[in-house]
Amino acid sequence: MHTQEVGESVDMGQLTPYPKLFIVGCPRSGTSWVTSLIAGHPDVLAVPRETHVYRLVYEPFVEMPTWKWKKRLQSWKGILRRYGLKPLLFGFQPADIWRGILREHQILNRPDSHGLHGLVDYGDLRSLIKAIRLQVPETNRGLVQAEELIAAMFDRFFEQHGKPGQVVLEKTPMHIRYGEQILWRFPEARIIEVVRDGRDVCVSYNALAKQQRWAQIGTAGAIRQWKQCVEWGELIRERPSLSNRVHTVRYEALKADPDRCLQQIFQFANLAWHEQQVKEIVKAADISRVQQKGDGQYVRSGLVGDWKEKLSEAEIAMCDQIAGEQLVRLGYKAGR
Length: 336
Prior knowledge:
Helix 6 (94-108) runs antiparallel to helix 7 (122-135), helix 7 packs across helix 8 (143-161) and helix 10 (198-208) crosses helix 11. By secondary structure, the chain is α/β, with parallel strands linked by helices. Strands 2-3-1-4-5 form a 5-stranded parallel sheet, with helices on both faces. 51% of the residues lie in helices and 8% in strands. GO terms for molecular function: sulfotransferase activity. InterPro entries: P-loop_NTPase (IPR027417). Keywords: Transferase.
């Protein structure tokens, strides 16, 4: 692909494609637990934080050039902070978006934050952007360049931290929105989708909202997001050429028999394993070993069916109204 032409300063043309695993699903569905289980395998190289790389690199090229004045005005603070005055007044050009990607790296570059710094440092990102803009044609509104930058960042991460035979593991739950793009761009990649009862997802959101602003979307917002994520996952699995590269993990099944579920994951990912190894990994990642957990914490109790006690009758009815079809289709019974 185009990343093989970027030049000596960022030469990645000699890299043999290495397996990639992307953990996706609605947030608060257990994706962190699944990630910690898989990361326990000695042949797995885990990206240390959620990168949100498709939202931060790919999505701006899809959406921002289409923003009219009213939309830009609604987001004026973020635009000024990340992109400057010119795109606010006159609309977005590719050069504005590239500057914004670099600025976003600086804004998010903290140990406790998600972001592109999970893959590359600022200097590497600048070099990669410069090389790709020189060597890759600016076609399809810059989307081809954006995809090549994403690939180049993963390659740079593997160059710096990986070893031959390792699998790179990345977890950003909302990458489920871009599942098709991921699988088309990376033929060596596979996706693990985590699915949990949407009503338990709502409970988890509501508890975390006490401390985290991003979780303050309410029960209605959480169940709508869950429904959308389920539908995105279904779209990927409907593609015959892609469906065999997606493995769905039910949170409830993982709670009931984590050893068996992890064995299935390792088999899907072509990772060798033995029973004692699986038992040790499951024990090390057990939620009971987490020191800080509970309401308001990133990790809660992880209970199955917690919604029966935590959600009101009105909230349960709302969940059934918004996503009842999806709940039933996935085998989750309606009502308390």
